[in-house]
Amino acid sequence: MSDKKRKILITGASGLLGQAVVKEFLKGDFLVLAQYHSNQPIRHKNCQWLWADFSDLQGIRDFLDQNRDCLKECGFLVNNYGPITSKSISELTAEDFYFDFHHNVLTVFEITDFFIKQGVRVVVNIGFEFIGQQRAYKKILTYAAAKNALRLLTTSFQKQYPGIQFHMVSPATLQGAEVRLKSNKKVSPESVAKEIYELILRHPRAI
């Protein structure tokens, strides 16, 4: 697997969706670079686990700098990392907004900006079910605000860099997720992973 066009970085790879995405791309014969923080659940000869702590800006930059050699040949990026804050509005603090914007927007920006300079071909960002809707939120206001900001970031990157494909996949609540959204719709992590895989394969140089 020395062909750089088949190399992909998946952030948040040890989470519920991340694990499914890793497995999907391994089935598709990609060399997978899988970022994790707390565990490494999948062992495979074509999967290289890369530890990172994205809790502050220095941690993100250290990850990119320390793994520069293997990341520079990566043609594809899935920004799956992005924890969710679930609190009632009366319990929210400014720190909750900072937390969700840091992890869901700033982290994606920093990693994507690095990959743009390295010649990435396709970037997939993960949203959520109600992306783009004007509505009130009782439990996930900070998360929803951050994900909608990520949507603006994705659209703006696509306008600025037309030679790169930018996508946003916004699934309903995943089966097995701890936080469930109001609609009560559920989708399997595997089905979302397949959607992401098919988006990547649309690029003519991903075959």
Q: Tally of extended strands?
A: 8
Strand content: 15-25%
| Average residue-wise pLDDT | 91
CATH superfamily: NAD(P)-binding Rossmann-like Domain
Q: Main sheet: which strands, in order across? A: 3-2-1-4-5-6
Largest sheet at a glance?
6 strands, parallel
- Total individual domains: 1
CATH class: Alpha Beta
Q: Please compute the radius of gyration using only Cα atoms.
A: 16 Å
SS class: alpha/beta
Rough shape? globular
CATH architecture: 3-Layer(aba) Sandwich
Task: Catalogue the unreliable spans.
Answer: 1-5
| CATH topology term | Rossmann fold
Series of H and E elements = EHEEHHEHEHEEEH
Question: What fraction, in percent, of the residue positions are helical?
Answer: 40-55%
Give the termini distance in whole angstroms.
13 Å
- The number of helices is 6
Describe the protein's architecture and organization.
The chain has 207 residues and is an alpha/beta fold. It has a single domain (4-201), classed as 3-Layer(aba) Sandwich (Rossmann fold). The protein is built from six helices and eight strands; from the N terminus they run E-H-E-E-H-H-E-H-E-H-E-E-E-H. The protein has helices at 16-27, 57-66, 68-71, 94-118, 141-160, 189-201, and strands spanning 7-10, 31-36, 47-51, 76-79, 122-126, 165-169, 173-174, 186-187. The strands form two sheets. A six-stranded parallel sheet has the order 3-2-1-4-5-6, with helices on both faces. Strand 4 (76-79), helix 4 (94-118) and strand 5 (122-126) form a beta-alpha-beta unit. Helix 1 (16-27) crosses helix 6 (189-201) and helix 2 (57-66) runs parallel beside helix 4 (94-118). Mean pLDDT is 91; it is low at 1-5.
